[in-house]
């Protein structure tokens, strides 16, 4: 899971990126707020064994 704060069309967004051990993108998410509930759900879903 990686996170960055980026500017998208003049608005600042948090960019969450989930990648596997081979470097392939599993899922990404753009959120207005840090630790948005969608981002936390994505984080929990990806980190389950």
Radius of gyration: 11 Å
Write out the strand line-up for the largest beta sheet, numbering strands in chain order. 1-2-3
Poorly predicted regions: none
- Secondary structure class reads alpha+beta
Strand segment tally: 3
Mean pLDDT: 82
- Count of helical regions: 1
Distance between the termini: 14 Å
Residues in β-strands, percent: over 45%
Q: How many discrete structural domains?
A: 1
User: How would the global form be characterised?
Assistant: flat
**Residues in helix, %:** 10-25%
Give the biggest sheet.
3 strands, antiparallel
The helix-strand sequence is EEEH
Pfam families: DDE_Tnp_IS240
InterPro entries: DDE_dom
Protein name: DDE domain-containing protein
Organism: Candidatus Enterovibrio escicola
Protein architecture, described:
Residues 2-46 form the DDE domain. It comes from Candidatus Enterovibrio escicola. It holds the Pfam family DDE_Tnp_IS240. This is DDE domain-containing protein. The chain has one domain (2-46). A three-stranded antiparallel β-sheet has the order 1-2-3, with helices on one face. The chain has one helix at 37-46, and strands at 2-8, 11-19, 25-31. It is built from one helix and three strands; from the N terminus they run βββα. Strand 2 (11-19) and strand 3 (25-31) form a beta hairpin. 20% of the residues lie in helices and 47% in strands.
């Amino acid at each position: 899971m990686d996170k960055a704060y980026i500017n998208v069309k003049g608005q600042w967004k948090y960019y969450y990126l989930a990648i596997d051990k081979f470097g392939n993108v599993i899922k990404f998410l753009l959120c207005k707020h840090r630790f948005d509930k969608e981002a936390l759900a994505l984080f929990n879903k990806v980190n389950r064994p």
